[in-house]
Design goal:
This protein has 286 residues and is α+β, with helices and mostly antiparallel strands. The chain is 27% helix and 31% strand. It starts with a helix and ends in a 6-residue tail after the last helix.
Length: 286
């Protein structure tokens, strides 16, 4: 009986630890808002005990606040960390100064291309200095995401790259699916992320196996083409203080070269992998 009680207490403690949350105080300025995903990008001061001053997007606990705040607003809020301390949420947001609000724009950004649309045929340069296009992968299911190699936040670009690495490794166990799929990571920092930098970054996720580049490309493009690609896929990004705040968009392209699905906030690695496998097994239209 004593062992059973001890086991129950231990299980309760583990559950409590997994659900533990910690609060930190944040002060900063709203740079961008995205009510559709309940996110705001904040240029904030140092958060003692958590992170240095930087600009980054945060999920907010109240979707209403993502619609109320405006770029230029000064805010104070609580940053809540959950689980492993890498998931951040803004709570108890207070607008402290609205004098810096930007004048409203008369034009609105075009919506992303809807599923079924052809992907843009823009020129990219991969880690080997080779010119590639999204249309080069027609006949394969293609999973695309956006990263930059200097990203300091473990829950953003490193998370995306780690997920893609796991998908790459899993697919390699099924040669048929491996041959019918491809992965592509496009940098948001083309001025710094040269082919050599991207190759070094990619090798770190490929366990120094350069043969993996045959299935997973790391690419850059010019600033103007990146802007067009981001608009096509509904990606938001902004550079400030040598850091790039961006949404974490993932795009699934069908073997026929059309957009199949988007992910922008919540997903799991198995979900991405399963969707990629399923798309690969559908015959491409002639």
């Amino acid at each position: 009986m004593k062992r059973i009680v001890t086991a129950v207490v231990f299980a309760a403690l583990v559950a409590a630890c997994k659900g533990k949350t910690t609060r930190y105080e944040l002060t900063g300025e709203v740079v961008q808002r995205n009510p559709a995903t309940s996110e705001i990008t904040v240029k904030h001061n140092e958060i003692p005990g958590l992170m240095p001053a930087m600009t980054m997007p945060y999920k907010v606990s109240s979707p209403l606040m993502a619609a109320i705040v405006e770029p230029g607003d000064k805010i104070a809020a609580d940053v809540i960390t959950e689980g492993n301390g890498k998931d951040y949420l803004l709570d108890n947001i207070r607008i402290t100064d609205t004098s810096g609000r930007k004048a409203p724009k008369t034009a609105t950004a075009a919506p992303p291309l809807p599923p079924g649309s052809r992907v843009p045929d823009l020129e990219l340069i991969n880690q080997d200095g080779k010119t590639i296009h999204l249309t080069d992968f027609k006949g394969k299911a293609l999973l695309v995401t956006f990263i930059y190699t200097r990203c300091p936040l473990p829950n953003f670009c490193p998370r995306l790259s780690s997920q893609f690495a796991r998908i790459h490794e899993d697919l390699a166990k099924t040669p048929e699916d491996y041959s019918r799929t491809h992965l592509l990571a496009i940098t948001l920092d083309p001025a710094y992320d040269t082919p050599a930098v991207l190759r070094k970054y990619g090798l770190a996720y490929l366990h120094d196996e350069a043969s993996g580049f045959s299935h997973w490309d790391f690419a850059s493009t010019s600033a103007d083409k990146l802007e067009k690609l981001a608009a096509a896929f509904g990606l938001s990004y902004q550079e400030a203080d040598n850091q790039i705040s961006h949404t974490m968009d993932i795009v699934l392209v069908s073997p026929g070269g059309t957009i199949s699905k988007y992910w922008s906030t919540d997903w799991t690695t198995p979900e991405l992998e399963d969707a990629l496998r399923q798309a690969a097994r559908k015959p491409a239209p002639r």
